Fold these 4 entries.
Entry 1:
Amino acid sequence: MKFHKYYFGFYEQYEILDDNHVECVIKDTTSNKYYQKSYEFVQDKFSGICLTEIKWSIKDILIIILIVLSIPILIVMLYQSINIDVDETFEPTLILMLSILIHELGHSTALRLFGKKAVSYKFKFKWIFPSIVCDTSEAYMLPNYEKIIVFYSGILFNIISCMILWRLNCLKECIPTLSFIMFNLLPIPLLETDGYNILRYGILRKYNHKKSF
C-alpha cells in the first residue's frame, strides 16, 4: 500500500513530504513553519535527495484495530450512561479537566510512536476549561492514515480511561468524559476539534500551509 513519501536530503533544515508527485509540503524544522510547493520545485531545489516510501507496519495495523474496536465500546458506554442518576457530590468540572489532560497525552503519545513529537506544551483555556495543550503541528508531516490516528488518539485515550472506570462500576464518573468525546468528534472549524482535523487533514487532505518559500 502506498501513501506519502519523505525526502531526506542535504538540506538538514528542511523535511519534505511528497504528495503523489504533485504538491510537496516542506517543513522548516528551525522555525516550525510549513510551505506547499510543486513537485518540480522540490526536485530542482533539493537535488541529490533520497526517497523513502512509507508503508503499513504491524504497529499501524494494531493501532487501527484498537481504534475500530473503540467505536462500538464507546457506543455501549453511551447507551448505558443514559439512565444514570447524578448526585450532588458529583464534580464534572474536575473530571472534565482531567479528561482534557488525558486527551492531550494521547496526542503526544501517538506523535512519538510515529517518530514525531509535540512541538510545545502550553497552558491555555481549551474551550472554557484550563488545561495543558500540546502542539500537534508535527502531525501534518505524516501520511494521511497516521494523521487520523494522531488526531483520534486523544479520543482513544479518553475511551480507554472510561473503560477502566466502567469495569470498576464507576460509569457515572465517565459522563463528563463521554460528553467531551462526543463533542470533540463533531467537525467544528472554529474550535478545531479532532473531528474537524480528521476531516480536514486526514480525509479531505487539505493543507493549511504557506505558499511562499
Entry 2:
Amino acid sequence: MMGAKFKIGDKVSWNSEAGKVSGTIIKVHTKDFDYKGYTHHATATDPQYEIKSDKTDHIAAHKGTALTKV
C-alpha cells in the first residue's frame, strides 16, 4: 500500500519509541539513500521523507505510510 504524498514544508506526525512526534518534512528521497549507516529504500512511487522534529531538531527518515499530515 502506498503512503500519501507529502512535500517539503508539510507538517506531519509519526509514532516513535517515545510516543507521538511531530515535525516538518525537509527532504524527499525518491531513490535509495544512506542514512545513519543504513541503506533506506525509496522510489518515485514509494518515497521516503526526512523530517525535522519540532521539539528536538532530531532528523528522522520515514516512509509515507508511517506519517500523518498535521
Entry 3:
Amino acid sequence: MTIDTTLDSDTAAGSVGDVETSLAWISLRDAAIDLQALQAQDGSVPDPAHHAEAAGLIGTIVRGIRELAPLFPHDAAYLEASVIDFERWANGGFGVPDFLDSLVAFQPQQNRVDGMRHLVVFPMYTQNGSSNRFVEAVIVEAIWPEFIAELEASDYTNRLFVSLRLIDFTPGYDTNSAVLFPETVAVREIPTFTWGAIFQDREAARYRRVVRAAAEITRLDLPEAAARLLDDQALAERTFVMWDLIHDRTHMRGDLPFDPFMIKQRMPYFLYSLEELRCDLTAFRECVAIEKRLTEAGSNDAETLDHARLVQYAVIFDRIFRFAITGSRVRNYDGLGGQLLFAWLHQRGVLHWTDTSLSFDWDGVPAAVVALGDAIDELYWRSIDRPKTAHWLAAYELIRGVLEPHPGSTWAAGLPRDILIGAPKGFTDAVMDDEFPLSMFYEALDRKMAPVIASTTGIRGDA
C-alpha cells in the first residue's frame, strides 16, 4: 500500500502556541475524523474497497505529524514511532491496529512543565465517551503549577500522574471523557503503564457549571471560598489538579484487601463506588491535614493553603451535585458514591434540607467526611482477613446502613444459600442494576439538573 507523505510547504504550523489553528493540525484532525467513518469498532478498516481512501487519509495524518513534530521536540521519539506505526498499519492491510511501539515511546510524565504541549494521535476508545477504537487526535497542554510540583516532590509523590488541558480534539473527546489513559490504545500486548492523564480543565468547567446551577436550585448559600471556584476557571483547574494528584496515588496505598480496584475483575459495582469514594475522601482528609499543618506553622505558603481549603469544597459539591445524578442508573458506581456522601452528611446532622433550602454546618463537615473515610478504611483493613465474598457482604452492609436498598433487592432480603455457597458470579448476578435508587431529594434534583448536566458534554475550559 503506497501512502503519500510528502510534506507541503503551505502547511507551516507556526508556533506551538497557535498549533491548533495551523493547517497541518486541521488537516490531520479532519483526516482522522474521515478515517473514523471507515473503521470498525476494533479499529480495523475491514472493507478492501475503502483501503485506498484510508491510505490517503493516513498519508495526510503522517504528513501532519511530520510537519508538526519540530514544535514538540520533547515528544520526538514518540512522533517518529507514531509515523512508523501508521505506515505499518496501512502496509499491513488495515487489520486491527497495533500502536504498542508509539505508546511505549510516549512518556508525558517525564515532561510535567506548566504549559508544555503534546500532539497525541492513537487508535483508542475514550472512557465515558466512545467504545470504538477509532483514530483520535488531541492537542493537550500540561497544567503543573509550582505548588503542585512541590507537593508531588515531597509528601505526595505520584510519578505516573499527568494533568492536562484540552486544546483541540477529534469527536471521541467531544464527550464526557476527561481522561487520557494508555490502556485505551490498540496494542498487540499490554505494556507496563507508566502514566495516566486527567483533563482538569474539563473537570473544572463542568464543576463550575453544575455547581452554580445546583446552588441556585437548592438555594444554597455558598461560602466565599467555594464561590470563588465558580468564578475562576484557572483557580478551579489548579484545585482539581491537587485533588486528582492525591486521589490517583491513593488507589495503591493504604490497608487494601489486595488491590481491590486496579486488578480487572468482575465484582458488584458498589465495590467500585467505595474505592473511588475512598480515594476522594483521602484527598479531602489530606487537604484538611495540610490546612491544619500550614495554619499552625504560620506558613507563608498561601497558594497551597488556599487550594487545600478549596479541594474540600470541590470534593463535597462535585460528589453530591454532579456525581450523584450523572449517567444512567445502570451500575452507576460514581453516582452511588455521591448518594452515599450526601446521605452520610445528612444523617450526621451537618447537611440540612429544610424549608426547601440546602445548608451545611461547615464547622462539623470535616469531621463527618473524615468519619466516612475512616469507616471505609476500617472495612478494607478488616477485609484483609476475610474471603472475597465476605468482603462484598460487609461492604454492602456498610452502604445499606446509610442508603435504602431497592425494595425488591435479593441482597437486601438476604442472599439464598445456593448463592452463598456458590461461585462469586452468583453474588454479582444478584445485584440489581440500580441496587440503591435515588432518594426523593435526588429524584427532584435530577429533573431540574438534567439539562445542565447534559450541556457539559464536550465542555471546554473556556466555556
Entry 4:
Amino acid sequence: MTTKPEIDVVEQKENNQLRRSLSNRHVQLIAIGGAIGTGLFMGSGKSIHVAGPSIMVVYAIVGFMLYFVMRAMGELLLFNLNYKSFQDFAADILGAWAGFLVGWTYWLCWVVLGMADIIAIIDYWNFWVDSKAWSIVLAVAVMLVLLVMNLLSVRLFGELEFWFVIIKLLAIAALVVVAIVMIVTGFQHDGVSASVTHIWSHGGIFPTGFTGFIGGFQLAIFAFVGIELVGTTAAETKNPKVTLPKAINSIPVRVLLFYVVALAAIMCITPWDRVDPEHSPFVGLFNLIGLVAAASIMNFVVLTSAASSCNSGVYSTSRMLYGLSHKKMATRAFGKVSSHGVPWPGLILTVAMIVGSLVLTASGSVMRAFTIITTVSSVLFLCVWAIILACYIVYLRRFPEAHASSSYKMPGAKVMPWIVLAFFVFILVALTQDPDTAIAEAVTPIWFIALFIAWRRIRGRAVRDDAAAAAIIENTDGEKVS
C-alpha cells in the first residue's frame, strides 16, 4: 500500500516533468522548419550574387555534412530515451562540463537569433505601417502571442510551428511552379528569356571563381542554423523511436527540394549576375509576372518565417534552461513546469531578453555590430554541432555493443564524424575571409572564457541530472517511461 508521503513525492516528480505531446506530424514539420531558415528567403539573393550557380553545390555540401550530424544525434538520443536533448547526452558522455557548455551556448545562440529576428519583424511591419513606433508595438505583440501559445501547452507550440512551416513550403512551391511555367512559356523580361541554360551560360557553374565559391559557405551555414532543433524535442515526442529517424532521414530530400531546386528556379528566370543582392529574389520573381499583391504576400511569408524562428528559439532555449536546472547548472526556478508540463520560467526569460533588445533599434549605428553578433551565433552553432560529433565518437568507442545493436546506426560511423569535423575547420577558415565574420570569430572566445569562469564556480554542485528528471510523463495516459 502506497503511503501518503510517497504519493506526494510521485506527484511532485510528475509535476516537474516534460510531457510527450508532440505527434509525428508536429516533429516532421519542426524538422523541416529547422532546415528552412530565413536565410533562404532573405539571404538567397546575396548568396547567389557571391557564388553564382555554384551556390547550389555549396548548399548541397553543407546539407550533406549536417545530415551526418543529425544522424549522430539521432542514434545517441535513441541510445537512451531518458535523454531529453543533445545537452543531456553531452553531459552523460563527455562529462558535466560539456552539458554546461552546450546548454548555455545553445541558449545564447537562439537568444541572439531571436534579437535579430524581432528587429527584422519590425522592418517587415514597416512595409505596412508608416510609424516605427507602431511597428515596434506590433513586433512586441507577435512575441507576446508566441509566449502565450508556448505557455498554454507544448502541443500549441507544435501546431503554431506546423502552420508556420506550411506557409514556408507553400511559398517555395509557388516559386518553383511559377518558374516552371515561365520557362515553358518562354517568359521574357529585360530582353532575357527564362531558360535553364542561364545556370551555365553566364560564366559557367563557378563564375566567381574559388573565392566566390568559398564565400558561399559563409552564407550557407547561417541558412542551416536550427537544423538540429528536432533534437530538443526528444522528451516531448510521442514514439521517438519511429518519429525521430523519420524526421532525420528526410533531410537530404529537404535540402534538395527547398534549397537547390528553389535557387535553380530563381536563376533560370533571372541570370545570377542580374539578381539583386539587397532584396529577396522571391519577391522579385513574383513582381516580374505582374502579381500586384506579390510584395505583400511575400512580406507576410518572410514575417512568418522570422516569427517561426523566434518561436523555435523560445521553445528550445526554455528546454535548455530546464535541463541545466535539473543538473544544478542554473537556478532551480528554470526546472519548474506549469500544470501543462511547460517550463514557463525559461520561456518568460527568453522572451523578455528578446523584447529587451528593441532598445538597439533606437540607433541605426548599432546595426553593423548586431550583424557581427548574429554571425557569432553561427560560429557558436558550429561549436554545438562539433560537440554532438565528439559525443558520438566517444560513444562509439565506449559502447561498441550499443552501436552494433542500434536500430538507427549512423552510416560511415567510424569515418564520417572526422570528415565533418574537418569540414567545420574549413568553415572557420572560410569565415576569416570576410571582415565582419572575421571580427565575429575574434570575439567568440570571450563567451567561452566567461563560461570557463562560471563553470569553475558551479562545478562542485553540478550533477548529471536529478532524480526528478529520470522519468518522462506521457501526455496520453500518464505512464512513466524509463
